């Protein structure tokens, strides 16, 4: 991937249920320059999800074919489903736009290997585990078993916070969003030499 423009790539990762999707969508609504990278997944769509908007929903066979054809910058198996970022769409988007990625720590590690990318890596954590469980249950999008599974993955996921440039605690959605806005505007202005910052 050649990435010579001043456009930036913001990665937002978090344990499931920390508020990432809401924040990602808010950023895109406010900043015209930002586009969300729409991943491919083998997960079944949730009732409110739209194909091509939330994800490109594809079969296992197609996903495996794409892997063998080298179509992904990164991909990972998460909760029994595959998720991946298409090379072609990212290469096209970065010419004109900043990109925000809602991907997990495995995808972040893989993208980080591309040293020429202007990546800003943000890890979002919920204030505590109880709140996380409430959010996972309240959003009412997954079965109780799936909620339990995602909750259990928290301990493993959170160990990867050290791979990120910024750690933001989502105590309050509005504050959290403002902190992420600050991170973006600072990094849009300067050429990135990052050190890890805990906000
Ligand atoms: P969900 O099933 O809740 O939409 O997503 C589950 C997890 O997959 C989330 O942590 C999300 O960030 C991650 N994810 C979504 N798309 C991708 C992708 O393209 N690559 C990777 N590595 N993770 C992804």
Mean pLDDT: 89
Largest sheet: 6 strands, parallel
CATH architecture grouping: 3-Layer(aba) Sandwich
The unique ligands bound to this protein are: guanosine-5'-monophosphate
Number of domains: 1
**Alpha carbon gyration radius:** 16 Å
Q: Summary?
A:
The chain contains eight helices and ten strands. With 199 residues, the chain is of the alpha/beta class.
Can you walk through the features of this model?
This protein is α/β, with parallel strands linked by helices and about 200 residues long. It has one domain: Rossmann fold. Helix content is about 40%, strand content about 20%. The protein has helices spanning about 20-30, 60-70, 85-95, 105-110, 130-140, 145-150, 155-160, 175-190, and strands spanning about 10-15, 35, 40, 55, 70-80, 80-85, 100, 120-125, 165-170, 195-199. A six-stranded parallel sheet has the order 2-7-1-8-9-10, with helices on both faces. Strands 4-3-6-5 form a four-stranded mixed sheet. α5 runs antiparallel to α6. The longest helix is centred in the last third of the chain and has 17 residues, at about 175-190. The radius of gyration is 16 Å and the shape is globular. The structure holds guanosine-5'-monophosphate (5GP). Guanosine-5'-monophosphate binds near residues 76 and 84.
Q: Layout of helices and strands, plus pairs?
A:
Elements (H helix, E strand, L loop, with lengths): L8 E5 L6 H11 L3 E3 L3 E2 L14 E2 L2 H9 L3 E7 L2 E6 H10 L1 E5 L2 H8 L6 E7 L3 H10 L5 H9 L1 H5 L7 E4 L3 H17 L7 E2 L1
Parallel strand pairs: 1-7, 1-8, 2-7, 3-4, 8-9, 9-10
Antiparallel strand pairs: 3-6, 5-6
Helix pairs in contact: 5-6
The structure holds guanosine-5'-monophosphate (5GP).
